[in-house]
TrEMBL record:
<dbReference type="InterPro" id="IPR000014">
    <property type="entry name" value="PAS"/>
</dbReference>
<keyword id="KW-0238">DNA-binding</keyword>
<dbReference type="GO" id="GO:0006355">
    <property type="term" value="P:regulation of DNA-templated transcription"/>
</dbReference>
<dbReference type="InterPro" id="IPR009057">
    <property type="entry name" value="Homeodomain-like_sf"/>
</dbReference>
<dbReference type="GO" id="GO:0005524">
    <property type="term" value="F:ATP binding"/>
</dbReference>
<dbReference type="InterPro" id="IPR002078">
    <property type="entry name" value="Sigma_54_int"/>
</dbReference>
<dbReference type="InterPro" id="IPR013767">
    <property type="entry name" value="PAS_fold"/>
</dbReference>
<dbReference type="InterPro" id="IPR002197">
    <property type="entry name" value="HTH_Fis"/>
</dbReference>
<feature type="domain" description="Sigma-54 factor interaction">
    <location>
        <begin position="158"/>
        <end position="383"/>
    </location>
</feature>
<dbReference type="Pfam" id="PF02954">
    <property type="entry name" value="HTH_8"/>
</dbReference>
<dbReference type="InterPro" id="IPR025943">
    <property type="entry name" value="Sigma_54_int_dom_ATP-bd_2"/>
</dbReference>
<dbReference type="Pfam" id="PF25601">
    <property type="entry name" value="AAA_lid_14"/>
</dbReference>
<dbReference type="InterPro" id="IPR035965">
    <property type="entry name" value="PAS-like_dom_sf"/>
</dbReference>
<keyword id="KW-0804">Transcription</keyword>
<keyword id="KW-0547">Nucleotide-binding</keyword>
<dbReference type="InterPro" id="IPR025944">
    <property type="entry name" value="Sigma_54_int_dom_CS"/>
</dbReference>
<keyword id="KW-0067">ATP-binding</keyword>
């Protein structure tokens, strides 16, 4: 058999296949219509004609397709030479699932279009529709969960223009552009979680989840499952499907570990592995999961003292303490109280204001509970006051146990000049800071807010070895 005969056989088989396919679809479909290059109907089967109220298909021949099928898109198919494979076609007797295809001659030129009405009852597509709706529901749920785990705060929410506040915000902004762990140090109520959310919100991970877990708030025997999740049926009472841990939920985002100092030692070693190897095993599983999470830890505990007591791993401390940020207590930034008070009252949707004596009193309290205590005092005073301007007496009553700020008495030497007194103060301050930093000049310069070279010059001038 030569090539010419092969081609004839191919064309014959192809033609029969096309004819057979047309007959199968035409017989099994709810209707078929064919239009020419001007979108005029040249053929329509009887079932389709009756659906549109025609007595016979002959009545449709020669008419524009839109005159018979009011919202037909066959003209668009002819014009654009592009099929519309699945669509919903509204008809007087209910919707149809339709397919529209262009028709070409042997030269490849569009000479018309054909439309098949595949289903007249959409329930035939119910498995596909159900799967689509299920996927849509899962997607909506995931988006909702992600929205609920977006950071709520940015750096503007860390209120204050004192030197201490500005230094904290400067260091926090710098850490946002890095991927290294951040360690937030400070007393309870100073705003460590707010800063953690602000760092996340300013980082390249901001579009992913911010997940927090408080090591002190979860029973120790459940902490590992909270962190790393559980495999299906890992232990009695465990979820049959398994349960994702915080590291899995925070994947691609930020995990905030609050009160890291209260984490039990066995879990500390597992956390260290995640930080170093970027992988972990869920409880009850042998499968190793990859972790892409930025960790921000916070504590009100003296971790160096905890290390000496054997309560905190030194290697984990060094791994977390890459970017340390010391969040100052409110008593060390009392000049921020007016702005903080205004912001808190606004957040409480209160119309109250503070008079001058009230602000003076607020600056005299040591605030052991820090900003959280300040908010509590202002909320209580606003609720109990009959006036819109809060006075000192109302603030004093709201504070309860008053803790006056410790004021260092100025040490004076008889006959000492101002210059000599200033030099003595500088000498004592620098010497005390160096002692606190165990002779580390770089750390002492950071705490004093000086450049390293500036501190060296002052040490030489003041005779500090």
């Amino acid at each position: 058999m030569n090539i010419t005969e092969n081609l004839k056989d191919y064309e014959q088989v192809r033609g029969l296949a096309i004819q057979s396919l047309f007959e199968i679809i035409e017989q099994s479909s709810e209707g078929t219509v064919i239009v020419d290059r001007d979108a005029n109907i040249v053929w329509m089967n009887e079932r389709y004609a009756k659906r549109f109220g025609l007595k016979s298909a002959d009545e449709a021949i020669g008419q524009p397709c839109e005159q018979v099928i009011s919202n037909s898109l066959l003209r668009q198919v002819v014009r654009n030479d592009q099929p519309i494979l699945l669509d919903i076609q509204d008809t007087p007797k209910g919707p149809l699932v339709v397919m529209r295809l262009p028709i070409h001659n042997n030269a490849g030129t569009v000479i018309g279009a054909i439309g098949f009405a595949l289903f007249d009852e959409l329930r035939n597509l119910s498995p596909l529709i159900e799967r689509y709706l299920s996927m849509q529901a899962e997607l909506a749920s995931t988006r909702s969960l992600l929205r609920s785990r977006q950071s709520k705060y940015n750096f503007a929410h860390f209120i204050g223009t004192s030197a201490a506040s500005l230094d904290v915000k400067r260091r926090a902004r710098r850490s946002a552009s890095a991927e290294s762990p951040v360690l937030l140090l400070g007393e309870t109520g100073t705003g460590k979680e707010l800063l953690a959310q602000a760092i996340h919100g300013a980082s390249k991970r901001a579009h992913k989840a911010f997940v927090s877990i408080n090591s002190a708030a979860v029973p120790h025997d459940l902490l590992e499952a909270e962190f790393f999740g559980t495999a299906p049926g890992a232990f009695t009472g465990a979820d049959r499907k398994g349960r994702p841990g915080k590291f899995q939920i925070a994947q691609g985002g930020t995990l905030f570990l609050d009160e890291i100092g209260d984490m039990p030692l066995p879990l500390q070693s597992k956390l260290l592995r995640v930080l170093q190897e970027k992988e972990f095993e869920p409880v009850g599983s042998n499968e190793m999961l990859h972790s892409d999470v930025r960790v921000i830890a916070a504590t009100s505990m003296d971790l160096e003292a905890a290390i000496k007591r054997g309560e905190f791993r030194a290697d984990l401390y060094y791994r977390l303490n890459v970017l340390p940020i010391q969040v100052p207590p409110l008593r060390e930034r009392l000049e921020d109280i007016p702005a903080l008070s205004e912001a808190i009252l606004e957040e409480l949707h209160s119309q109250h204001e503070l008079d001058r004596e009230a602000l003076v009193l607020l600056a005299q309290h040591a605030w052991p509970g820090n900003i959280r205590e300040l908010r509590n005092v202002l909320e209580r005073a606003a609720l109990l006051s009959d006036d819109l301007v809060l006075n000192a007496a109302e603030i004093r009553a709201a504070i309860g146990t008053f803790s006056p700020v410790a004021r260092n008495e100025v040490k004076t030497v008889e006959g000492e000049t101002f210059a000599a007194a200033r030099a003595r103060f500088d000498r004592e301050l620098i010497a005390a800071t160096l002692e606190a930093c165990e002779g580390n000049v770089v750390e002492a310069a950071r705490r004093l807010g000086l450049g390293r070279s500036t501190l060296y010059k002052k040490m030489v001038a003041l005779g500090i070895a």
